[in-house]
Amino acid sequence: MMPFRLSCLVLALALAACQPVTSGADRPNLGAEAPPGAAPGTCWGKKDTPAVIETVTEQVQLTPAETDAKGGVLRPATYATVTRQAILRERVTTWFETPCADVQTPEFIASVQRALAARGLYTGQITGRFDARTRAAIARYQAPLGLESDTLSLDSARRLGLVATPITE
């Protein structure tokens, strides 16, 4: 009886492993937020850069030293240690336009992977999924362009030749 239960358990685990895993990393939630004044029908990504804060510790004189006429110290100065935080750089939110989710099909993502592979930035298999390797390659591509994000920007998609560039007259 025990081998039957064990084989049922193994079969159940094997079948459970066949279920598709839904991951937010495959299809980013694009277009859920947009900056004020964004055109309708556009999709946006957001990169928050945290503030840089420095802790400053300094000695502050509470009372000066008392001296006699000859310069001898009657009572030394008193000090207190004061610790405060100073903001060196404010928090910055950077908005950038992205290809909308309906464009980001497995075929489009595979094209992103091929374009990044052609530039030596992506070395994984062409899967058509926004996996960790793809996101890392996107981040490496965009960093020299001034965007520290692993979410593909519309500008990057255009530079990669994957999205049409509008003609301005």
What does this structure look like?
With 169 residues, the protein is of the alpha+beta class. The chain has a domain at 52-89. Helices cover 27% and strands 25% of the residues. Strand 3 and strand 4 form a beta hairpin. The longest helix is centred in the first third of the chain and has 16 residues, at 2-17. It is elongated and about 90 Å long. Mean pLDDT is 86; it is low at 15-28.
Summarize the model shown.
This protein has 169 residues and is an alpha+beta fold. It has helices spanning 2-17, 106-118, 132-142, 154-159, and strands at 43-49, 52-63, 66-67, 73-75, 78-89, 92-98.
What kind of oligomer do you see? Answer: single chain
**Structural class by helix and strand composition:** alpha+beta
Give the radius of gyration: 29 Å
Number of helices: 4
Note the run of SSEs as H and E. HEEEEEEHHH
Question: Biggest sheet: strands, sense, closure?
Answer: 2 strands, antiparallel
The neighbouring-strand order within the major sheet is 1-6
Task: Give helix % range.
Answer: 25-40%
Count of individual beta strands:
6
Q: How far apart are the termini? A: 79 Å
